[in-house]
Design brief:
This protein is an alpha+beta fold. It has helices at 2-14, 16-37, 51-62, 85-97, 110-154, 159-195, 224-235, 248-251, 260-277, 280-302, 313-342, 347-374, 382-413, 420-424, 431-434, 439-445, 452-470, 491-503, 526-538, 571-581, 597-631, 635-660, 680-708, 713-741, 748-780, 789-794, 803-808, and strands spanning 70-77, 104-107, 208-215, 242-246, 478-479, 511-516, 543-551, 557-564, 591-595, 676-677. It is elongated, with a radius of gyration of 36 Å.
Length: 812
């Protein structure tokens, strides 16, 4: 591999414009594919095989009108006064005009609904009065007929006359029975009305109205264009004194892929590069290659959005990873090339050697990240697997760019990659001809091993610190963000808070409960069955209101709307969903199912939490195999993995403290802490493990190189550390700045991912790789490089350091 990369680097340096043109063509192809294939992204997530998914499938078959996506448009007066009749008419006109919007099934007029509900309540009152009056009339008629029958019988009336009176009495008895049956139905209706009394479309003070919009498409298939059409329509006509906002189901669109925060992160990365490399040309080069790689990777991935359903966060993850690893991988090669130039190597040979040594390490480091990302496909969760695949594609392109375009640009720059001062002082002679040591060699000779006491203290303090930071992770709750976690100025946040204030927290996350009946229910028994089921649902804790909303054509499925006491991400709502699903069968074998956004969020979160341990084992197992081949040691990979686990759980703890507990949340603009993004723990495992092994590789490979070249094991630890620490520090700072730029994104999902990656790199690079790992390797001494002989014989020699290549192409 090293020899191949050496030749590739030398070719790219000599044929720089050919390589550059080739990448320009690749970029053009990716852009062309994007223009043809891009079909939009989805802001929804789903996990196949969940309980809510089964309910939704049943609804699609039997009650299709209730299987599609749904959202809410919130109208409220700006001064809190009651909506006037003219304002209500204007809202009603917008509702009527919106019937032809794309993918819209129905739009419910809240004022008509409230009028109908009031009319139904009045009908109940009138019906009771009529039944009371009818009962009194019948009873009076019965009394009269009984008296007449007694008088006729006493007078010796003929049997025919008595029979006629009895027939009239039987008729009144039948009428009374019918009246009682009507009364029974009326009372059942009254009971349902009482159970559903907590469901309102207009607030008690009349200032706020909820307009429910139902779509024909399922939430995963609903296009952003259709949601945007709803927003545009309801904002098209301004109603004086009325403000309009939209629930996240409608307003949560595709997040901004690249914003001001990311620009600031890149600027900081450029400053780090400039400080480390000292040359403007050298500092700009990694930025250029990273941006080219990101453009190709992200645009190329988006070109397939018409073939596979792609979550909106997928390209953002590609940008994050493409920028971070793209800059770092190019930096490793540039740094190695500059060091060789300072030692007097010819430009072309130095580029080839840098590509065969540092580039070789880049390939193996990138392979580790790619393996970790592709392993997301073993979770069995489509959107997560696709995110991992897209990220892996962007990392693979970053590796290819680093080992081809970087050498080409270095060839064009020549010695200008060094500062003028350094170019002027380059000594072409080597130690073998001049007898003088270089500055690097003098530094290496001055290195001393760390003391054992320092190693012990470092190990204890770092492990204790990481464990303390990890403590909040014990109370981690996962979920998907709702409107409360959106930016305060957003329409989603306004809609959520208004709904919560005016209608109760449960109105922000209603549940859809279905009842499966073993046999079709007769028409005359539908109402009684609905009351039976509704009462059983209402008996659960935290149920505010229950209302039947539909009966299937085969009369074997009944759907209910359920308003919980708290919001969709609350513990009580989660428990309610579980309680409803575990209820015993009702009379006659009726079983309940739960769907709705809150239930879907719970299912996704639980599915991801269940898969996390399996995924962690797969990623760690595959990467351990790679690291054992690279380091030819058993303990080094185990130290690397153990340190990663500590930094991972410490990162989880920090995320919980900020995003769930709200510590320092104001600093990043987080207004309402809540559950942790459900797929964040899984994503962090894959990405952070790959990046952690990058830094492990660049530090530990230098230690191994020093050890196999004859240094004492403990001295080799410090020599390798000193040789690689500057570039690893710079690389880590660059990654932290790139990931940190996404912390200030408007989208909560992106914000938490950016924070988790930035903090994870901070802990792993500076605490684990630069403190804990060297200390543990010092304490283990020579045994850290132990490998069973039988395993040593069968393992391929990957020579990630490129030592053999350096011996063949010794240029200084």
């Amino acid at each position: 591999m090293a020899e191949l990369l050496y030749r590739l680097g030398t070719f790219a340096a000599r044929k720089a414009w050919v390589v550059i043109l080739a990448w320009v063509v690749v970029l053009a192809i990716a852009v062309g594919g994007f223009l043809v294939g891009f079909k939009g992204l989805t802001s929804s997530f789903d996990v196949p095989g969940t309980a809510s998914g089964e309910v939704t499938s049943e609804l699609e078959e039997k009650l299709p009108d209730f299987s599609g996506a749904a959202g809410t448009v919130v109208f409220t007066t700006d001064d809190g006064s009651e909506l006037t009749s003219s304002q209500q008419d204007a809202i009603g006109a917008l509702i009527d005009d919106g019937s032809d919007l794309p993918d819209v099934a129905t739009i419910v007029n809240p004022f008509d609904t409230e009028v109908q509900r009031a009319a139904q309540l009045q009908q109940l009152t009138d019906g009771r009065d009529q039944i009371t009056a009818g009962r009194a009339q019948i009873e009076a008629g019965q009394q009269q007929l009984e008296q007449a029958h007694a008088g006729a019988e006493a007078a010796g009336a003929p049997d025919a006359q008595l029979a006629a009176i009895d027939a009239q009495l039987d008729g009144l008895t039948t009428s009374l029975a019918e009246l009682e049956a009507q009364n029974e139905q009326l009372e059942l209706g009254a009971e349902l009305a009482e159970l559903s009394s907590g469901i309102q479309m207009v607030s008690d003070n009349g200032s706020t109205a909820l307009v429910n919009v139902a779509f024909t498409e399922a939430r995963l298939e609903l296009s952003e264009e259709s949601k945007q059409a709803v927003i545009t329509h309801f904002e098209s006509q301004s109603i004086e004194g009325v403000e309009v906002s939209f629930s996240t189901d409608i307003a949560q669109g595709v997040p901004e892929i690249f914003g001001i925060g990311e620009v600031i992160g890149l600027i900081f990365a450029a400053i780090v590069l400039l400080v480390m490399l000292g040359s403007f040309a050298a500092a700009v080069l990694p930025l250029i290659t990273a941006l080219v790689g990101v453009a190709i990777g992200v645009v190329g991935v988006l070109a397939f959005s018409g073939v596979v359903q792609m979550a909106s966060v997928t390209p953002v993850l590609g940008v994050m990873l493409g920028l971070a690893v793209g800059i770092d991988y190019s930096l490793f090669i540039v740094n190695r090339h500059r060091k060789q130039l300072r030692d007097g190597a010819p430009v072309s040979e130095s580029i080839g050697l840098a590509n065969g040594t540092a580039g070789n390490a880049v390939v193996f480091a990138g392979a580790t990240v790619i393996v970790a990302l592709l392993a997301l496909n073993v979770t069995g969760i489509p959107f997560l697997g696709l995110m991992g695949t897209a990220g892996a594609v962007c990392v693979a392109i970053a590796v290819l760019i680093a080992i081809t375009l970087t050498p080409a640009l270095l060839g064009l720059l020549g010695e200008r990659v060094l500062t003028k001062k350094t170019r002027a002082s380059i000594q072409r002679a080597t130690l073998g001809t001049s007898g003088e040591q270089t500055a690097e060699q003098k530094k290496a000779a001055a290195v001393k091993p760390m003391s054992t006491v320092r190693a012990i203290l470092t190990t204890v303090v770092t492990i204790a610190t990481l464990l303390v930071i990890a403590i909040p992770a014990l109370s981690m709750r996962v979920g998907l963000p709702d409107g409360s976690s959106e930016p305060q100025e957003s329409a989603s946040y306004e809609a959520f808070t208004l709904t919560e204030e005016q209608f109760g927290a449960g109105a922000t996350g209603t549940l859809l409960v279905t009842a499966d009946l073993p046999e079709a229910v007769a028409d005359e028994d539908v109402l009684a069955t609905q009351v039976l089921i509704a009462n059983a649902i209402a008996d659960n804790d935290d149920v505010t209101a229950v209302a039947p909303i539909a009966v299937s054509d085969d009369s074997k499925l009944i759907a209910f709307q359920v308003i919980p006491g708290d919001g969709p991400n609350s513990l009580s709502t989660e428990q309610l969903v579980r309680d409803l699903r575990t209820m015993p069968e009702l009379a006659g074998g009726i079983t309940l199912g739960v769907a709705g956004q809150a239930a879907i969020n719970i299912d996704i979160s639980e599915g991801l939490a269940d898969i996390l341990p399996i995924y962690l084992l797969v990623v760690v197992g595959l990467s351990l195999i790679i690291m054992i081949m690279v380091f030819r040691s058993l303990l080094v990979p185990l130290i690397a993995t153990g340190g990663f686990v500590l930094s991972l759980f410490a990162t989880y703890g920090a995320i919980v403290a900020v995003f769930q507990w709200g510590w320092f949340a104001e600093i990043i603009g987080l207004t309402n802490p809540g559950p942790i993004l459900s797929f964040l723990p899984v994503i962090l495992v894959g990405i952070l493990f790959g990046l952690a092994m990058d830094y492990q590789l660049f530090l530990a490979s230098g230690m191994r190189e020093a050890y196999i070249h004859g240094s004492n094991a403990r001295l080799a630890v410090m020599q390798g550390f000193r040789a690689g620490r500057s570039v690893v520090i710079a690389a880590a700072l660059i990654m932290i700045s790139v990931f940190g730029g996404f912390i200030f994104s408007e989208a909560t999902i992106i914000r938490s991912i950016g924070f988790g990656l930035a903090f994870g790199v901070l802990l792993d690079a500076f605490v684990v790789r630069m403190l804990l790992m060297p200390a543990l390797m010092h304490l283990l001494g020579k045994s850290v490089w132990w490998l069973p002989r039988w395993l040593d014989r069968i393992l391929p020699n990957v020579d990630v350091e490129g030592s053999a290549l350096e011996r063949r192409h010794h240029v200084v």
